[in-house]
Amino acid sequence: MAGLAYASVPLYRLFCQVTGYAGTTQRVAIPSSATIDKTVVVRFDANLAPGLPWTFETVSAPITVRLGETAVAMFRATSTGPASSSGTAVYNVVPDQAGIFFNKLACFCFTEQTLAAGQSIDMPVQFFVDPAMALDSDGRRIKEITLSYTFFPVAAAKKGVAEQAADAKGRGKGS
To answer: 20 to 30 A from 30, CA-CA: which of 11, 118, 124, 126?
Structure first.
């Protein structure tokens, strides 16, 4: 039972990634091989969870893209705290049905971001909307997609038992 509970989170995440459920976008390595004349407007949304001393905003205005066309959007994060801080972004798209068709080639959300006090960074997202959306009964009705990111604070890594013991041993030598 404990194993099933432990495995449920990764399995649910995998299910969402494969199906686009709950607006989960797809991650791909190569751009679309086809572009069609149907367009969709992609809007961008930036949010911060409490506890992260940053500002986070969209730099790019909404973009009208043809299905299959690769596009780039920019976001900006600025540290407003007195020390370095780290965050990680989670993302989704609205409407949820667009998740299976929204493909990210490169994204800042794939890695933890660390900003020094006062540092600002522009972060690109490279994406395309799959032309298959035009053939889907729900997808063909989608005229606008909102790509939304929320940055959450990442706590400093906690030391393991071996590292704590090594630190204690090192402190004992200097006494």
So the answer is: 11
